[in-house]
Amino acid sequence: MTLSSKNVSDNGRHFDSSTYRDFATQWGFSHVTSSPHYPRSNGFIERMIQTVKNTLKKAKVSGIDPNMALLCIRATPIDSRIPSPAELLYGRKMKDNLPTRIRNNSPGRDDVNHRMQLRQQSQKYHHDKSAHDLAPLSPGQLVRVQDQTSRHWITATVREQCHEPRSYLVETPNGRVLRRNRQHLADIEPRRIHHDEEVTKTPDPHTREEMTLDPTPDIRGSPAPNPAPNPVPIPNHQPTTRSGRVIKKPEKLTY
C-alpha cells in the first residue's frame, strides 16, 4: 500500500465526516471534492463506477459469479497497444474465462507510459476543440443559479471562490448558501472595463473639418453622361422573374 498526496471524491456523507477528515490529517493527504450536481468534474471515477454496477447487474441476471465478472474487467486490455490494468499492476498477464489471444511478449514499462501519455494527449486535444474557459466571477456579483429540484433559474450573489477547481459559494435571496460549479452560474451583470483598458480615439481636427464639409462637385466643362438605354418592352403574356428576365420553358416541355 502506498500513500497519495491528494484524494478526489464526490460530496458523499462518508467523505464529509469528521472521521474522514481526521483520517486525511493523520495520513497526510489533501481531500478535494467535486462540485455538487456536477459529476462531470470527476468523470473518470463516475464512469468506472457505472461500468462496475452494470457488470454486477448483468452477472446477477445471468447467474455468473460476480468475482469472475470483475476479474474480466480488470484483465481486459485498455486498447490494442496498452495492457490491462491488472497486468500493469502485477507485471504479468491475468487469466480469465474470456476468449482472447495471449501474447508472450509484454511491452516495457517506459513504452507503456509513453503510449498512455499519447492517449491522454489525444483525448485532451479532441475535448478542447469544443471546450473553453468561462470568465471568473468576483464576490458581490449578481448571477443566476439553477435550482436542481424545480429546474428554475433564480438570482443569487457570489460570496467567494472555493479552493476546489471552478467552484463558487453563492447566496440566494432566502439566505441559503450553495456551492455550485461555474458551469451552473450565469452572469447577469455587464463586465466592468478598467480605465487602463479603455482606448479612446480622438479624431484629427483637420479630418473632422473635411468630413463636415459638403463638397459640391464641379460639373462645368464635364461631358454629359450618356443616357441610359430604354429597356426592351416584354410582352405581358410571357412570365418573368423579379428582375425582369423572361422565363423560358425547356423544349421537351413545349408541345
TrEMBL record:
SUPFAM superfamilies found in the cross-reference section:
Ribonuclease H-like
What is the designated name of this protein? Integrase catalytic domain-containing protein
Q: Where in the sequence does UniProt note compositional bias of the Basic and acidic residues kind?
A: 189-211
Q: Which GO terms describe its molecular function?
A: nucleic acid binding
Cite the source lineage. Eukaryota, Metazoa, Echinodermata, Eleutherozoa, Echinozoa
Locate the Integrase catalytic domain: which residues?
1-58
List, as start-end ranges, the regions of compositional bias called Pro residues: 224-236
Region of interest (Disordered), ranges: 189-255
One Gene Ontology BP term is: DNA integration
